[in-house]
Design goal:
By secondary structure, the chain is of the alpha+beta class. It is 37% helix and 19% strand. The protein has four helices and five strands.
Length: 147
């Protein structure tokens, strides 16, 4: 009876604080990203600035293929990809998974991303997932589909 009371208190605390055990993102390389959280980005200015910075880098440092896939085509960048359990979400105007793969390759080489493992989800114009990739970091030139 006592443990049931503790469980009810715990559940009430979770519901009052807005927490949910269901919304906890599983850790590991096999986590499936949710639908692009475009409407849930807490700092839309930061997401847009990240996209502008990434596109500027690609126009200067990317291959011709990357410039064509990235320049003017990335709307927002969200997420926290700074450690292995995080993921970047890029919203683009693409409709093709091959173009999305090229964007993911460029993203894995952008600034400090080239030195760290990066998981990246590329979303298209209808906010559908086009490509989910993982890079090994340390100068890897291509992301591989996450398994």
């Amino acid at each position: 009876m006592k443990s049931l009371r503790h469980l009810l208190i715990f559940a009430a605390t979770l519901s009052l604080t807005g927490c949910s055990l269901i919304s906890v993102t599983p850790e590991g390389d096999k986590a499936v990203p949710p639908k692009f959280p475009h409407d849930e980005i807490s700092n839309a200015g930061w997401a847009h600035t990240q996209a502008q910075s990434f596109m500027a880098w690609a126009s200067l440092m990317g291959t011709d293929e990357q410039r064509a896939a990235v320049d003017g085509r990335v709307v927002n960048i969200g997420g926290d990809w700074s450690d292995r359990s995080g993921m970047a979400w890029l919203l683009t105007d693409h409709v093709d998974s091959e173009e999305a793969r090229i964007v993911a390759d460029a993203f894995s080489q952008w600034e400090e991303n080239a030195d760290i493992p990066v998981r990246v989800a590329i979303y298209g114009s209808a906010q559908e997932l086009l490509y989910l990739g993982c890079s090994e970091g340390e100068g890897a030139e291509r992301v591989q589909p996450c398994v």
